[in-house]
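Example record used in the benchmark description.
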Amino acid sequence: EIQNRLDAINPELAQFDFTFDDVRQGLLEQISIITNVMRVQYYSDGSVYSFWRDDAVSGVDGVLSRADIKSQEDRDYSISRKLFVEGDKDSIQIEYIDRTINKPTFIYRRLNGSTIESVAGRNPKKVTLTGCQSRANAENRAELEIRRLMYQHTQGSDTFFNSAVLLNRGQVVYWDEIHET
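Model output (structure tokens):
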């Protein structure tokens, strides 16, 4: 499914051209390198690996309402917000190996208000894409990282009843928190 979606967006995003020549590198480390380049997350429940790509979604997989949240005395709940503060990371620096020159190359994205510019910033978040030799993959990752920097400022956790076990990692849900929605 991920392969088909990437082929539809840009077939170059679905390619990975890298030689694993370190015999001490295990299969999970190799999978981590490949999935990191492809913006794919994964987890194992012990016997089955599940994969999902960090992409925008068109719909929601479920709703966790007040009926799914445990009572106040049994609940472990937190929400934290981090506003964008001047002096924090203001840009992204992606490092990959350009296969045409076989040397490290950098892609930059900087926030300028609500505008994204393709220039270096003062205090970049640095991401190294080990195994990436494709500018298309590096550009794609730069777009994801700069949007994360721009938008992801709220994190939450809560304690739910068993209805939440039907959800898997990577699924998008509406969470109707008791004090705010």
